[in-house]
TrEMBL record:
<comment type="subunit">
    <text>Homodimer.</text>
</comment>
<dbReference type="InterPro" id="IPR036291">
    <property type="entry name" value="NAD(P)-bd_dom_sf"/>
</dbReference>
<feature type="domain" description="Tetrahydrofolate dehydrogenase/cyclohydrolase NAD(P)-binding">
    <location>
        <begin position="204"/>
        <end position="289"/>
    </location>
</feature>
<dbReference type="GO" id="GO:0004329">
    <property type="term" value="F:formate-tetrahydrofolate ligase activity"/>
</dbReference>
<comment type="pathway">
    <text>One-carbon metabolism; tetrahydrofolate interconversion.</text>
</comment>
<keyword id="KW-0547">Nucleotide-binding</keyword>
<dbReference type="InterPro" id="IPR000672">
    <property type="entry name" value="THF_DH/CycHdrlase"/>
</dbReference>
<dbReference type="InterPro" id="IPR046346">
    <property type="entry name" value="Aminoacid_DH-like_N_sf"/>
</dbReference>
<dbReference type="GO" id="GO:0035999">
    <property type="term" value="P:tetrahydrofolate interconversion"/>
</dbReference>
<feature type="domain" description="Tetrahydrofolate dehydrogenase/cyclohydrolase catalytic">
    <location>
        <begin position="75"/>
        <end position="179"/>
    </location>
</feature>
<dbReference type="InterPro" id="IPR000559">
    <property type="entry name" value="Formate_THF_ligase"/>
</dbReference>
<dbReference type="InterPro" id="IPR020631">
    <property type="entry name" value="THF_DH/CycHdrlase_NAD-bd_dom"/>
</dbReference>
<dbReference type="GO" id="GO:0005524">
    <property type="term" value="F:ATP binding"/>
</dbReference>
<dbReference type="GO" id="GO:0004477">
    <property type="term" value="F:methenyltetrahydrofolate cyclohydrolase activity"/>
</dbReference>
<dbReference type="GO" id="GO:0005829">
    <property type="term" value="C:cytosol"/>
</dbReference>
<dbReference type="InterPro" id="IPR027417">
    <property type="entry name" value="P-loop_NTPase"/>
</dbReference>
<dbReference type="InterPro" id="IPR020630">
    <property type="entry name" value="THF_DH/CycHdrlase_cat_dom"/>
</dbReference>
Length: 970
């Protein structure tokens, strides 16, 4: 690329154009201003005619009268712009509108004129100087760079006409096009829409002088001479819109003399070498020359003067820049939603989920984003129907009050699941598409394991789905793959470090860990952090003693106490326990380890709890991967890998925007298991959504499994991490699950339902309501949050059964209980629930945590066991007691508790349905997720790697190679 310089008004320092703060400006599309010029005919004495009233152009006026008028107009525009600027800075004191000028060559005359006015107003002007013979690619590169610079509010392309090509103009962002030269700006002006584009400053200057110099506009004739292209068309349209008659002509016109003599005003856009005889101009007419290519008499304007059309044009340019900045600031305020719903036409019988999904065409995701108030720069689009949302949104809307926060939980489920996801989606469809209340669903990303295993997809079901469901269930935007890569990088770092420590001396290790590069040895920042943790306040690698080198290079991991597993997002039971290190190159370093399903990784739990990139980096760094032989915890930061983990996770931390079948917005983010982790979608997705919906809107999020697991962890772990407080709990129940808890037979996935679940049985329903449903309502009430029971209706349910559930739920303390038909009807079938949630959200909320974090770990575990599960007490194994003592010694005693227990019973015994009592809860082990920030006791045996059933879901999944349509995906 040819040499480029950037000039700032405050300094003559020249900086390469790649400097990130550079700005652009170029000349009007068909009219590049060069040196100031006076139209030659202006000072000539008329021959046989009357001298025109005045003549003025870019340079200086032909008379004192003309100079006075320009000077006065410039000062008026400046003063009005200053008032706008002051009002703008009252709204945002730190804002400083900025104009960038891109020009070919290093002529500073234009910069000086614009800088002179900019100082009066308080604007910043920056100049980007390209070579005179710069290429189109070089211009476009600078334009695109400045387009994305949030500190630039106006671009002025001061370039030769041949350089302002269609490609250059297309590259220019319309909102920064303060010269009004882009096709969009021109089209808007011609159409009469002044709300989007900008009036070219030179046209504003001409109209100002026409209005201010004693010319009665109405009915007057204005001749536009010598122009062509968009500037001429725009000027003509605006002249006519101001009540005048506009005619256009060219220097070669045979009727030029008569056209000039009939005109009340003449605007010369381009003159070239042509002269206009003064005696052609009728008495009282005014002449403006917008052509800056004529030479002056060589004298400069007085430094205190603003005479000349060039100054007036520059003043209007500054006005446009301030206007652009005002628009920019306004766009960054909270914007009311303009959500367009997608009509739903439910069919009977209800087709398969994938058929329903495919029959509905989702809105383009950028359209959805605009409807809910997202800015284009806050969106990273993945294809047509999904996009990442940048966390900068939180900074932009930091002063916006949050909406209402709704948690969807459930009773203890059957192995078939009870439909929390469908209720969540049906509820937001009802709120947004039918009640016209802003609402957002926040869901977990499904794992590939269940999708291809036994459960199937997790996009909802029936007419309450996230679409396209294939994209939702398969890969999405790659977050789980990023977690897999990050997790396995830690695993590789562990085994590599053990190998290298076992085969090298301290000196050799030190030389490799802190190598000499070009004769210089430096600690990396992450190594300096390790030195600090070891109590060494040193930065010079040559200053460490042998003892300090030993402490620095030796993690001394105990292979038998490594807690970190590798992960893969596939149900593969044969990876539950493996042996690594059997190759000849790793001889003597074999050890037993295993794989977990990817979503069971601690990194997934961190993703869900982090409130920003910095917080995620901190949590990743403090993850404990094992214990040294000396009994000290070894972290990811000790391994030197935490910075690389943050790099792998930098995109995964952004929530993914999708939509429901009815076009309402959904955030899909994170997917931790609920039996071994906290089982909730991300804090960040909830926070972003709460800002977007507005103060009267709703964010509906879902907790995994029953209220005893997912909801309890939502309150005690997620709400502590986020600082958010829920307004309502929606407790999902089904008649079939209540029958099971009322004494019905066992239910297994893949086998026909027993008759008890198909035929009406009010006794079983009542038994389930007065045991499990009552207990789950009581659990929610422990936290002081109103409860609405949502009965997810199946076609086998009878009206008597549904009425009985609703009646008993209210008797048990629910603020309301309603049947929901979203699966068959979409949002319309969930409007009664939406009304109930809206009403409950207005109730007083006495939210409280179940326990104080400063309680001993044992007491916190006991509180959950007794108050949530209904146990009489807990019983700690010797290993569990030893682990608790160890975590207390390490300073982790104040962390919250994340119980790992079966989801199929309130107790630790899956076969115990209803609301068991009189049992002791056994704690066989206690582990720590220090990075995620919780202690998790293990109740019974928890598998972190599911296995495939005899007939997995993948038997039915296929792809048509011609149409690329997927079939069999749930």
């Amino acid at each position: 690329m040819k040499a480029t310089a950037i000039r700032n008004t405050c300094s003559s320092l020249r900086i390469p154009a790649a400097f990130p703060g550079s700005r652009v400006t170029g000349l009007l599309r068909r009219c590049p201003p060069v040196a100031p010029a006076v139209f030659r005919a202006a000072s000539a004495a008329p021959s046989g005619g009357t001298k025109p009233k005045f003549l003025v152009n870019f340079g200086k006026p032909s008379s004192k009268y003309a100079g006075f008028e320009c000077d006065r107009s410039v000062r008026e525009v400046i003063e009005k712009t200053k008032e706008t600027m002051e009002a703008l800075q009252k709204r945002s004191a730190a804002i400083q509108p900025s104009l960038a000028i891109i020009q070919a060559g290093e002529d500073d005359s234009l910069l000086e004129m614009n800088t002179k006015l900019a100082r009066r107003i308080g604007l910043k002007v920056t100049q980007v100087c390209l070579e005179k013979e710069c290429s189109e690619d070089e211009i476009v590169k600078e334009v695109l760079k400045l387009n994305e610079d949030p500190g630039v509010h106006g671009l002025y392309l001061h370039l030769p006409p041949a350089s302002t090509t269609s490609r250059v103009l297309t590259a220019l962002k319309p909102e920064k096009d303060v010269e009004g030269i882009s096709d969009l700006s021109t089209g808007c002006l011609i159409r009469g829409d002044l709300s989007t584009g900008y009036v070219p400053p030179v046209i504003s200057a001409v109209l100002e002088l026409l209005d201010n110099n004693h010319v009665s506009l109405e009915g007057k004739t204005v001749l536009v001479l010598g122009g062509h292209g968009t500037l001429e068309v725009t000027l003509r349209c605006l002249i006519e819109r101001n009540g005048m008659v506009a005619i256009t002509s060219h220097w070669t016109s045979k009727n030029l003399k008569s056209e000039v003599m009939e005109a009340d005003a003449i605007v010369i856009l381009e003159a070239g070498n042509m002269d206009l005889p003064p005696n052609w101009v009728k008495p009282g007419a005014v002449v403006f020359s917008c052509d800056p290519t004529h030479n002056t008499d060589g004298s400069d304007n007085d430094a205190s003067s603003y005479s000349g059309l060039g100054y007036l044009t520059a003043a209007y340019r500054m006005k446009n820049v301030v206007h652009s900045c005002t628009r920019w600031l306004q766009e960054r305020q909270y914007q009311p939603w303009n959500l367009s719903s997608i009509n739903l036409q439910p069919q009977t019988p209800v087709p398969s989920d994938i058929e329903i999904s495919r029959a509905q065409t989702p809105k383009p995701v950028d359209q959805l984003a605009k409807e809910i108030g997202l800015l284009p720069e806050e969106l990273e689009v993945y294809g047509r129907s999904k996009a990442k949302v940048r966390l900068s949104l939180l900074d932009r809307l930091q002063n916006q009050p949050d909406g209402k926060y709704v948690l969807v939980a459930g009773i203890t489920p059957t192995p078939l699941g009870e439909g929390k996801s469908t209720v969540t989606i049906g509820l937001v469809q009802a709120l947004s598409a039918h009640l016209k209340l802003n609402s957002f669903a926040c869901l977990r990303q499904p794992s590939q394991g269940p999708t291809f295993g036994v459960k199937g997809g997790a996009a909802g079901g029936g007419y309450a789905q996230v679409i396209p469901m294939e994209e939702f269930n398969l890969h999405l935007t790659g977050d789980i793959h990023a977690i897999t890569a990050a997790n396995n990088l830690v695993a590789a770092a562990i085994d590599a470090r053990i190998l290298h420590e076992s085969t090298q001396s301290d000196k050799a290790l030190y030389n490799r860990l802190v190598p000499s590069v070009n004769g210089v040895r430096r600690f990396s920042p992450i190594q300096i952090s390790r030195l600090r943790r070891l109590g060494m306040d040193k930065t010079d690698p040559a200053s460490l003693t042998p003892q300090e080198i030993n402490a620095f290079v030796r993690l001394d991991l105990d292979p038998s106490r490594i807690t970190w597993h590798r992960v893969v997002d596939t149900n593969d039971r044969f990876l539950r326990k493996i042996t690594v290190g059997q190759a000849s190159t790793e001889k003597g370093q074999s050890r037993e380890t295993g794989f977990d399903i990817a979503v069971a990784s601690e990194i997934m739990a961190i993703l869900a709890l982090a409130d920003g990139l910095e917080d995620m980096k901190t949590r990743l760094a403090r993850m404990v991967v094992g214990t040294s032989r000396g009994g000290q915890p070894v972290t990811a930061e000790d391994l030197g890998v935490s910075g690389a983990l943050a790099v792998l996770m930098k995109d995964a931390i952004k929530p993914t925007l999708m939509q429901t079948l009815e076009g309402t917005p959904v955030f899909v983010h994170a997917g931790p298991f609920a039996n071994i982790a906290h089982g909730n979608s991300s804090v960040l997705a909830d926070k972003l959504a709460l800002k977007l919906v507005g103060q009267d809107g709703f964010v509906v999020t879902e907790a995994g499994f029953g209220a005893d697991i997912g909801m309890e962890k939502f309150f005690n772990i997620k709400c502590r991490a986020s600082g958010l407080q829920p307004n309502v709990v929606v407790l999902v129940a089904t008649v079939r699950a209540l029958k099971m808890h009322g004494g019905g037979p066992n239910v297994s996935a893949g086998t026909p339902l027993p008759r008890e679940y198909i035929d009406e049985n009010l006794d079983l329903v009542a038994g389930g309501c007065r045991s499990n449903l009552r207990k789950q309502i009581q659990i929610a009430r422990l936290f002081g949050v109103p409860v609405v029971v949502a009965v997810n209706v199946f076609k086998t349910d009878t009206q008597a059964e549904l009425d009985l559930v609703c009646q008993i739920a209210k008797e048990c303390g629910a603020s309301d209980a309603v049947p929901c038909h979203h699966w068959a009807q979409g949002g319309r079938g969930c409007t009664e629930l939406a009304h109930a949630v809206n009403a409950a959200a207005t109730r007083s909320n006495n939210f409280q945590f179940l326990y104080n974090l400063q309680l001993p770990l044992v007491d916190k575990i006991r509180a959950i066991a007794q108050q949530v599960y209904g146990a009489d007490d807990i019983e700690l194994s010797p290993d569990a007691k030893a682990k608790i003592d160890y975590y207390n010694q390490q300073g982790h005693g104040s962390l919250p508790i994340c119980m790992a227990k079966t989801h199929l019973s309130l107790s630790h015994m899956p076969e115990k349905k209803g609301a068991p009592t009189g049992f002791i809860l056994p704690i066989r082990d206690v582990r720590a997720s220090v990075g995620a920030g919780f202690i998790y006791p293990l109740v019974g045996t928890m598998s972190t790697m599911p296995g495939l059933p005899t007939r997995p879901c993948f038997y039915d999944i296929d792809l048509d190679p011609v149409t690329e349509e997927i079939s069999g995906l749930f």
